[in-house]
Prior knowledge:
Blueprint: H1 2-22, E1 26-31, E2 39-45, E3 51-59, E4 66-70, E5 85-93, E6 96-102, E7 111-118, H2 121-141, H3 144-167, H4 175-193, H5 196-235, H6 240-298, H7 302-309, H8 314-336
Antiparallel strand pairs: 1-7, 2-6, 3-5, 3-7, 4-6
Helix pairs in contact: 2-5, 2-6, 2-8, 3-4, 4-6, 5-6, 6-7, 6-8
Amino acid sequence: MKLSLVCLNLCLLLLTFTTFAVEDQKQVFSLAEFERNRTYKKILSIPDAYELEVHVTGNTEAGKEKVFLCNEENQLITNTPLSGQLNYQGVIVGSIIRLEFKTGTRVSDGQLTVEIAKKDSNQVYHEIKTKLIASANKLLEINAAEIKAMLEQHLSELTVLRDKVNEVQEIKPLMPEVITSLMNLAKVYHRLIALHATITRTHQQELEEIRLLKQRTQGYRDKTQKNVKLYASATGSSEPGDLSTVYATEQALWEKLFTQEVELEEKLIAFSQKISALLVQLTERAKIYQKSADLAFMSETAWGILKGLTQETEIPKLSGEISNEDDAIRKLLMQIQ
């Protein structure tokens, strides 16, 4: 008997929640005739929404009849008031639209319809994941193949040069080859350095995109938490935990995605910083190799300097760290997918 009562109470709770959750998921304000010199005001609201899809259609007198759409903070959400032939669509953060429609000096037979709908959180979830993965991959791939190929060329030439410098005793016959190698290394570095601005700009753009996606995810995560309390209050439940199971799956998804985004952002920032550090190192090395090549033209004393320069450690170290970061990021992206 007790079990039956529990089941009945649970069914009633779920039915109450479902009825409450599905109602008012769309709001419409419509006018088929406008009175002159009239200001119509309306607040359209979907309390459990984090984002609203807004659609405005109709026909008003251009320049004289104006539609003002504002958010919860009463800020205009369009660049200018809407007027004339209307067909506006947009998405805003928030659960309220404040509408104000000012008519002209004569009775008009125009039409105005303003519709808001709750943005589907499941659709948003997959949209965010898709954009997140795309931005991360773009950041990883920007000029990656070119940088890797050039670095491999650099390390190969540097190894050959180091071996020759360490093996030979008579430097004069080898000096032209050494000078050529140094000049080639400088050219490789200069080509990579030329990519620095483009790479940095792209990294910044994609990191900003990821930050905004994370911010949007956090908004949905926080909204699901608030909705548990909202529905608990609406149904008279004294225990918010009773209703938390209804949102458990959705809230867990947003929590997990947000955690993954935080980790991904940290890794991508570290990856970007290492790429930048590598290019800074290459800039310095390019200057050194160019200077060494110039010295070699003028003096055999440059030979001792060359031996010291060819003991390269920082660039291979950075290159290895970047590869490790790349692998870790790609593993995380596989988990997000």
